[in-house]
Amino acid sequence: MFCDARHYKICYTACRDMRSLLKATLTLIGTIIGAGIFVLPEAFAAVGIVPASLIFWTMTAVVLATHLMMVDIELASKKPIRLAGAVRRWLGEPAFTFAALTYPCHLIGASVVYLVLGASFLTMLLTPLGIPPAPFILQTAFWLGGVLVLVGGLRLLAKVEAWATWLLLVALSLAIGWAWQQNGITSAPSHFALSLSLFGVCLFSLGGIPGMGEVVEIAGRERRRAQLATIIGTLVAALVSWLFALTMAGTSLLSSSIWFSTLMAGAGFLAVATSYIVVTQDLRATLMFDLNLHTREALALAAGIPLVVTYMMAPSVFATVSIVGTVFGGADGV
């Protein structure tokens, strides 16, 4: 009986650890694969497959190193912190003042992109059904769904992220397979002189720093498990994004095929929804842990500011991605 109980405990612990590893990995994949993946094909077509791929995988290596650093930063703190709090601890108050401005702006800008795209993909899904609601209504509905997940806590967030990311990976795999059969890999002319213009787009598309705090928590704050989830999650997300960019470069994402248009709209919705949830959660955590705001105030600001900016400005997605990735993403990297 003692042996059986001991073996049961070992198996139970192993299964629990595997589940937490899987959930942490899927959370990071869902965080990384967001709005940026739908900008990559246009960027690859403009620069060329070879120079774009070189920049993309170079940025992947840099981003992976940054993610692993963030794991150690999170674990080195006795209490939860985010990027701005880490800057205060290791670089002092002047640097913290800078990070306390740039990092929330980065998260707000990303959330705005996700709100705009979320409403766009919902429109694509509902229009064939004869239900074309106004963008204002769809943005509000998308926003409300994200807020309800955040209110449910980290456990609900991890569960929603896991299921949504599985569906996202299936949808993107089908899209990549279809595009590969139809077009193969587009041989766009190479423009090496323009390759550095991909810096902001790649950084935005690959960056998962907003999800690193949640990844560490979901992994049970266990270093090896968090590192493994970070490595697998970053590389899987990068591989899927790269294959998507290669096969879709120079191809309209809105094919004349109804099923493909629906597939792309569903994949797009899942991509921006998973990223939006984690980014908004990280913005709330930043306001709580690093800027010492009350829980309710942090949630109200994290959810409310991007919605107000979206209503007032109606921003361009490509321009916002480029600015957020280059200016605020670069500042966070520094």
How is this structure best described in words?
Helix 1 runs antiparallel to helix 9, helix 4 packs antiparallel against helix 5 and helix 9 packs across helix 11. With 334 residues, the protein is mostly helical. It has 13 helices and no strands. The longest helix has 34 residues. The termini are far apart. The protein is 81% helix and 0% strand. The protein is globular.
From N to C, what is the helix and strand string?
Answer: HHHHHHHHHHHHH
Q: How many beta strands in the DSSP annotation?
A: 0
Q: In percent, how helical is the residue content?
A: over 70%
Task: State the low-pLDDT regions, or none.
Answer: none
User: How many DSSP H or I helices?
Assistant: 13
Q: Supply the helix-strand structural class.
A: mainly alpha
Largest sheet: none
Mean pLDDT score? 83
- Strand fraction equals under 5%
Quick synopsis:
The protein is 81% helix and 0% strand. The chain starts with a helix and ends with a helix. It has 334 residues and is an all-alpha fold.
What is this structure's SSE topology?
Elements: H1 2-32, H2 40-47, H3 49-76, H4 83-91, H5 93-126, H6 135-151, H7 154-183, H8 199-206, H9 209-218, H10 223-248, H11 258-290, H12 295-313, H13 317-333
Helix pairs in contact: 1-7, 1-9, 1-10, 1-11, 2-3, 2-10, 3-8, 3-9, 3-10, 4-5, 5-6, 5-11, 5-12, 5-13, 6-11, 6-12, 7-10, 7-11, 8-13, 9-10, 9-11, 11-12
